[in-house]
Specification:
mainly beta; 3-stranded mixed sheet; 147 residues; 1 helix
Length: 147
């Protein structure tokens, strides 16, 4: 699946891989960050893509973590990580968008603790946004992303 970056004006540029036709698109917000199929009007090729609005590089990889919920610690699996957030595998966690939690993530040999806001909840993934990331945690995440 091809990722197409959306600029600050909400525009994206795409070239059909079959015929080379150039498209300049302005996708509506409900189509951002979702898998889509677009048909080239010149050659009728179907292009699978995601209009990507992320501002930071996101590295895929499975990392262990712990969600520090009131009254209990819940083991979680981090599916991807960036400087600004992460995706967590949803294993029937009853989390609400907008709620805040502390999360511990094991990055290489270090455990880091970060305050997160639940940004998105879907059947398979939970998107979290980082808040109040300390310098130590920022460095560990930064080194992980460079490797």
């Amino acid at each position: 699946m091809k990722r197409i970056s959306v600029n600050l004006q909400g525009e994206a540029a795409l070239i059909c891989p079959v015929c080379g036709k150039y498209f300049r698109l302005k996708p509506q917000k409900e189509y951002w960050n979702r898998p889509l199929k677009i048909k080239c009007d010149k050659c009728k090729n179907k292009i699978q893509l995601i209009f990507d609005t992320r501002s930071a590089y996101r590295k895929e990889g499975v990392l262990p973590g712990i969600l520090l919920a009131p009254g209990k610690d819940v083991p979680i699996t981090i599916l991807d990580l960036s400087e600004t957030g992460a995706s967590i595998k949803n294993t029937k966690l009853q989390l609400q968008e907008g709620d805040f939690y502390k999360v511990k993530i094991k990055v290489k040999e270090d455990w880091i603790e970060i305050l997160v806001r639940i940004a998105r909840v879907s059947p398979d993934k939970i998107g979290v946004e980082f808040f109040k990331v300390g310098n130590h945690e920022r460095k560990i995440v930064g080194f992980y992303l460079l490797q």
